């Protein structure tokens, strides 16, 4: 049997788990705009559509972002990916390509917070024989997530 403090800790941890609520994709393959709400109640979201609309690519993009496989976005044609979370946070992923250089950026903002500062960070750069991750380790990413949580609350 769990003590009251154990139950409280479990409930607090559940409340602080960052869950994806919605994914938006702008101009995927230069054509498609998608909005995919996540079913957080049941924990299962089903994506249905015709072949070639980007269902698999969107899932691979979500995985690439959270596994830090940023190179995935290099050849992918898109305007932006927006990731909406249960804490009111929104991350917008964009890229810049010029002169053989590919840079990936993420803008983080809190929805509904007046005068909230939008923070745009370069998270990946590749080109001219160089490749670098700006979130160099899982620890850095975890620290960034903690900073976002502190900024929200």
Please provide a written account of the structure.
By secondary structure, this protein is an alpha+beta fold. It contains three helices and seven strands. It has a seven-stranded antiparallel sheet, with no helix packed on it. The longest helix is centred in the last third of the chain and has 15 residues. The two termini are 32 Å apart.
Q: Would you report the number of β strands?
A: 7
Strand proportion: 35-45%
Count of helical regions: 3
State the end-to-end distance: 32 Å
Q: What is the strand arrangement across the widest sheet? A: 2-1-3-4-5-6-7
Averaged pLDDT, please? Answer: 82
- C-alpha geometry: globular
Order of helix and strand elements from N to C terminus: HEEHEEEEEH
> Based on helices, strands and strand pairing, what is the structural class?
alpha+beta
Cα radius of gyration in angstroms: 17 Å
Summarize the structure.
The chain has helices spanning 4-16, 55-66, 138-152, and strands spanning 20-28, 32-37, 80-85, 89-98, 101-110, 119-127, 130-133. Helices cover 26% and strands 35% of the residues.
Topology readout:
Blueprint: H1 4-16, E1 20-28, E2 32-37, H2 55-66, E3 80-85, E4 89-98, E5 101-110, E6 119-127, E7 130-133, H3 138-152
Antiparallel strand pairs: 1-2, 1-3, 3-4, 4-5, 5-6, 6-7
Provide keyphrases for this structure.
153 residues, alpha+beta, 7-stranded antiparallel sheet
């Amino acid at each position: 049997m769990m003590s009251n403090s154990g139950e409280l800790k479990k409930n607090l941890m559940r409340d602080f788990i960052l869950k994806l609520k919605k994914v938006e994709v702008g101009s995927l393959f230069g054509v498609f705009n998608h909005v995919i709400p996540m079913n957080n109640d049941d924990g299962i979201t089903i994506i249905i559509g015709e072949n070639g609309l980007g269902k698999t690519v969107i899932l691979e993009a979500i995985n690439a972002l959270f596994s830090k496989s940023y190179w995935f976005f290099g050849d992918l044609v898109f305007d932006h990916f927006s990731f909406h979370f249960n804490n009111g946070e929104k991350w917008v992923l964009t890229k810049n390509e010029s002169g053989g250089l590919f840079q990936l950026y993420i803008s983080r903002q809190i929805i509904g917070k007046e005068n909230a500062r939008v923070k745009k960070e370069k998270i990946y750069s590749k080109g001219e024989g160089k490749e670098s991750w700006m979130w160099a380790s899982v620890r850095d990413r975890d620290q960034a997530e903690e900073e976002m949580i502190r900024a929200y609350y």
